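Q: My labmate handed me this sequence with no annotations at all. I'd like to see what the chain might look like in three dimensions before we decide whether it's worth expressing. Could you predict it?
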Amino acid sequence: MIRFLLVCIGALWLLRCATTAEATATARKPDIDWTTRYGVLLVDPDEGKYLASRKGSHLADTRPDGTAVTVPAEEAKKRRDRGYRTIQDPPFRYIDPEISTRRKSNDPEVWWSGYKDEEIVEKIVRGLATAYPGDATLFDIGKTHRGRHVLALRLGSRAGIEQRPSFLFDGGHHGNEPLSVEYVLDVMRTLLSSVSPVPGAPVSPVSLSYLEQRQMREYLDNFQIWCVPLVNPDGMNVFWNRSQIAGRRNGRELDGVDLNRNYPFYWNSGSRNASSDRPGSTFYRGPSPGSEPETKAMMNLADRQRFVVSLSYHTFATKVLVPYTTDGAISPVPMTGWRFANELVRAGRSNRPDKNYIAARNLYPVDGTDQDWLHNTYGTLAFIVEGSYQTPEFATGGLASIRGMRPLSLRALSLYANGPTIQVKVLDHSGKPARVRIRRLDQALLEQEHFETHPLTGTYDFILDEPGDTAIQVVFQENGKLRQILRTVHCSTGVCPVTIRLTSDTDNLPW
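A: Here is what I predict for the chain of 511 residues:
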């Protein structure tokens, strides 16, 4: 009997331990960032050798002020409490020393095996353009303050590509968000995995099912998909080699500019804490709107392409932000972006136990963002997509976040295709594409938006909230007078094309 009771007590104790352990594991925050795993100590050389030899630690750097050693976070905290010096803002190569090996390699599998610096990103982008010449075209869209290239890869089969709707995926506005770059690289890699590369080309494709291959092929045949994985290569270089905090900004000498506070719409809005006029601030907006070469490169690209949908990736908050994100700016009514964003978040998987993707207007006060400028200037359905992690271990949280973002990214393409989407093409009297003002009469525009058809193709796309009739107004000038054409278009599903020809049999505008 006593033996039986002892067995029962032991079993209850084990059950309690297991329950406590499970509760502790559930309550523990996920490893969303390297700071949950590591700390960096600054010690003398002899102690540095000792610490670096211990499990989970490595020698990070030999500096004039001591030896930098990366150690487990718990170890760093204990020693910091005992008076050890710590480096609060180490360059990211202290955390991920394998970057040097990946950079020197010529094997794409090695490049893809961890976070990338600006050199590896360039290798990948140029390599994909070479490996898939029929479906990937390289564009050098600008240079940074420090002479680095801002590269774009246009995806899509080449025949007639300029006539197709354009989509934009970009990352790395903030150079200290390498996971945002990964999201764009993954879009490129996934789409091109449906295509056979040049024989012998060194590539590392994603494994796709037959149906997935067909879907990716359809996207390449029907769209032009622009990918700018690293808008801020100067900032990323600083992130890896000098300071993670300073890596947020670009390479402007001394001060550095937060590129996503530098776009013209509501630049220096006056909203408290939205941006800063102080050089050296983390959120320095720059000396003038659109002052930075990287900002200019993205603005010029948008002016040429007139993107239908844009996803600009950032990290950590696990949200899809709908324009306008700037406090005080009034979004169009109705705002199709909410329907679109809610569909995106349903497709995405955060792979975090504590947070799922949600749609929101903003996270905190901002102004001068690319998203708001794109929407205000061209009517682009532009979203800031905040990924689910910051910089976790790449092989665990990093890959989980990338894989969870993939269906969200691709959903942006299918949402346009599934509609209801009205694709208007306006032709002039001679049948050539016409650049005219265009709008939906059932939508109130409250921030002086003046949308136009694409000057080269004469097209403009309206992605709708729901099926039904939509009144389209085209405004053009003829013989010194403003004239209008009104057309009611019914669209239930998919892409509904409509052609409008400019004729003299039109109404004069009353205003």
